[in-house]
């Protein structure tokens, strides 16, 4: 092999190696001093303000965890509430660094928007809620019904697909803001309301006499949800992806916000890598080796976040189901931090 080709190859390898440890988004976030996350305009259990105006939820915790990864400080974040119509543009333009709102990854979104999903932090399915007095028990009984739905969503597309596939018809009532859809449904502007079942459950708790409303058992479509970033910055993609995986791995190995300090003395090699006792994992991301320790200490593992926002300790009281750890019959499977 000629010498100039060898030198060029070495230079290319060095360039790739250096780029793997530095990315424009991470540099921008560090210089700014906080991570800017796009969230929903208000979905209980995922991202919504409490009575004091403090935003809480599974997706807010994801943003806090990213801040802990980058800054060793989970408080260094800001939120931008975004509608379904504005969310992708906000990420594409750089208004936000990451979408931690409810976004369903699809092939079209990963291949046409210049954006890419980093993982799944909630496995959901699309369902339909109706008033109990409507007398509907099955989806097929909604033939000709008026259905409220948000525009620009996979929900809207899957709704149309399901009715077309089953030879049925419906009349869409398209409303941009989620809270306005809930009000329209409660006011009787539509016979039914479709969204992710977790969102329907959250919305039902806000309605007068929640027991008067029924979420049908059947599912229209799968609806995995998770963070999304811009394509072309592998370093930032990895920061977000491995933040989620660290939360899942911490739960699997029993590392919690309450015992994380004592776990620093663990003899388990997996725990040692997660908590930075074994060095190197942080350097590979361009952050401190204690990045995952700080996530667990300040935010908690995935199970802790789920429990306080969606589980039995929350107003939602949703069972883990598919979102249980893989060893417990669920789909949550953290990739090895090694």
TrEMBL record:
Stored PROSITE patterns: SBP_BACTERIAL_3 (PS01039)
Signal peptide: 1-22
Xref: InterPro entries: Bact_solute-bind_prot3, SBP_3_CS, Solute-binding_3/MltF_N
Keywords from the named record: Signal, Transport
Domain Solute-binding protein family 3/N-terminal span(s) in chain numbering: 34-263
GO annotation, biological process: amino acid transport
Family the entry assigns: Belongs to the bacterial solute-binding protein 3 family.
UniProt name for this protein: Amino-acid ABC transporter-binding protein YhdW
Native source organism of the sequence: Achromobacter insuavis
Gene field: yhdW_4
């Amino acid at each position: 092999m000629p010498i100039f080709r060898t030198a060029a190859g070495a230079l290319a390898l060095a360039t790739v190696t250096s780029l793997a440890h530095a990315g424009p988004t991470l540099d921008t976030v560090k210089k700014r001093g906080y991570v800017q996350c796009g969230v929903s305009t208000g979905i209980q259990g995922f991202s919504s303000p409490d009575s004091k105006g403090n935003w809480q939820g599974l997706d807010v915790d994801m943003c806090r965890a990213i801040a802990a990864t980058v800054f060793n400080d989970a408080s260094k974040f800001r939120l931008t509430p975004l509608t379904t119509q504005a969310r992708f543009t906000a990420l594409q333009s750089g208004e936000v660094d990451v979408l931690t709102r409810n976004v369903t990854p699809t092939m079209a979104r990963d291949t046409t928007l210049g954006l890419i999903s980093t993982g799944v932090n909630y496995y959901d399915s699309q369902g339909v809620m109706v008033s109990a007095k409507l007398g509907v028990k099955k989806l097929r009984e909604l033939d000709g019904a008026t259905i409220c739905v948000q525009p620009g969503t996979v929900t809207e597309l899957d709704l149309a697909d399901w009715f077309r596939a089953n030879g049925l018809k419906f009349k869409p009532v398209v409303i941009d803001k989620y809270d306005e859809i809930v009000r329209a449904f409660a006011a009787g502007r539509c016979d039914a309301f479709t969204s992710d079942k977790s969102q329907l459950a959250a919305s039902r708790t806000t309605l007068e006499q929640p027991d008067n409303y029924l979420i049908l058992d059947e599912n229209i479509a799968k609806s995995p949800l998770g963070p999304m970033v811009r394509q072309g910055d592998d370093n930032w993609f990895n920061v977000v992806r491995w933040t989620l995986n660290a939360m899942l791995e911490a739960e699997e190995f029993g590392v919690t916000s309450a015992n994380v300090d004592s776990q620093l003395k663990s003899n388990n090699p997996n725990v040692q890598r997660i908590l930075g006792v074994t060095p190197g994992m942080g350097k590979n991301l361009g952050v401190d080796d204690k990045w995952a320790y700080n996530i667990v200490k300040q935010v908690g593992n995935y199970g802790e976040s789920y429990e306080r926002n969606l589980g039995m300790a929350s107003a939602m009281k949703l069972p883990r189901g598919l979102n249980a750890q893989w060893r417990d019959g669920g789909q949550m499977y953290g990739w090895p931090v090694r």
